[in-house]
Design brief:
116 residues, mainly beta, 3-stranded antiparallel β-sheet, 47% strand, elongated
């Protein structure tokens, strides 16, 4: 008899960020995904609409989530997240979502130093 080698068909699906999501620069945001088949580790990246990819994390275990602090200097705009298996064996993309700088709330101080 011979030895039979089978390559499992692995697949990924990005759950978050979802369509219509807004991520704020400087805040912690979670990338969530599901996988089927054997995917031991993943690489997570983000790209703007012009396709400029930047790694968020490489070689993280396929646990279904990764929390990322969005860099404060990431320009406002629309982005997509890619989660991919080793050597690009499988990959999935999020829909486009918005990244923007958070506008701090207006604070008014009275003469007796009380916040209103």
């Amino acid at each position: 008899g011979g030895i039979e080698a089978r390559r499992s068909q692995a697949s990924l699906k990005v759950l978050s960020p979802a369509e219509g999501s807004v991520w704020f620069a400087g805040h912690a945001c979670s990338v969530l995904w599901t996988s089927q088949g054997t995917v031991h580790e993943v690489r997570v990246a983000i790209a703007n609409r012009f396709g400029f990819w930047q790694d968020i994390v490489k070689g993280v275990s396929d646990c279904g989530s990764f929390t990322w602090i969005v860099p404060p200097n990431l320009p406002d705009g629309f982005y997509t997240v890619r989660v991919e298996g080793p050597n690009g064996s499988c990959r999935a993309y999020s829909p486009y979502f918005e990244v923007k700088k958070e506008v701090p709330p207006l604070m008014l101080w009275t003469q007796d130093d009380k916040l209103r």
